[in-house]
Design a protein that fits this description.
Length: 243
């Protein structure tokens, strides 16, 4: 740690109240997900729960390495600012909805790693071995916005397949026109920045599927649609409509 960082970190300790940021003064080891205020949530199921559609090795690395690194680097970035936000998903949501409030020198890091933490947390909770079927008000909303369930699923897979490079394909609720929409974001950007409410996000980074599906992203998308927790997605939709 440089002298400049030390001075900055000690100046911060007096002003940061809401966030108990650990500056890890003097520590030279790389940060881990458990070092800072934001924590890596455990997977809501066993790593092999989604086999054979998503394999256990991919889940273990994706959650334990990729997601953990986003959390560690988010903590590092926030620790270099005097931002006062609770280290919760709600606090992170506020930051990602308006990145202008993040000091410019840490904005890209919060956007990328904060987005990574937010998106992956939503992703794990959008998957389940027995997530139910599309039904009720969500199915009605999908039929209104996309004409049919089939047309919706086809568009989701097409947009996910065509997204160039790394990113996410989303089912979002747009509070402006009260419609459902399928969008994509590059890297770890979230739909929150576009004032869209993410209901379902599917990770199409190669790290999400390469071990099992190699370059065959369409096969991965087909497989992941077999383990979507539709009941969970429907719950998010109902909350978004009421908000
Ligand atoms: Mn990922």
């Amino acid at each position: 740690m440089t002298r400049r960082h030390l001075l900055r970190a000690s100046a911060l300790t007096s002003v940061v109240a809401a966030l108990p940021i650990q500056t890890s003064l003097g520590a030279e080891k790389p940060p881990t997900a458990s070092d800072g205020p934001f924590k890596l949530p455990p997977l809501p199921y066993e790593a092999d729960a989604l086999e054979p559609h998503i394999d256990a090795q991919t889940m273990t690395i994706h959650h334990g390495k990729h997601h953990a690194t986003y959390v560690a680097k988010l903590n590092e970035a926030v620790g270099k600012t005097s931002l006062q936000v609770p280290a919760t998903l709600a606090g992170l949501r506020e930051l990602l909805s308006d990145l202008e409030q993040v000091p410019e020198d840490q904005r890209a890091a919060v956007r990328n790693h904060g987005g990574g933490h937010f998106n992956h947390t939503l992703f794990w909770n959008s998957l389940s071995k027995d997530g139910g079927k599309l039904k009720g008000s969500l199915l009605k909303g999908i039929e209104t916005s996309f004409k049919s369930e089939d047309a919706f699923l086809t568009e989701l897979q097409e947009k996910g397949t065509k997204l160039f490079g790394s990113g996410w394909v989303w089912l979002c609720y747009n509070p402006q026109d009260k419609a459902l929409t399928i969008t994509t974001t590059p890297n770890q950007d979230t739909p929150l920045a576009q004032k869209h409410e993410p209901l379902l996000g599917i990770d199409v980074w190669e790290h999400a599927y390469y071990l099992k599906y190699q370059n065959k992203r369409p096969d991965y998308l087909k497989a992941v649609l077999k383990v979507i927790a539709w009941d969970e997605v429907a719950g998010r939709y109902e909350s978004a409509v009421k908000a």
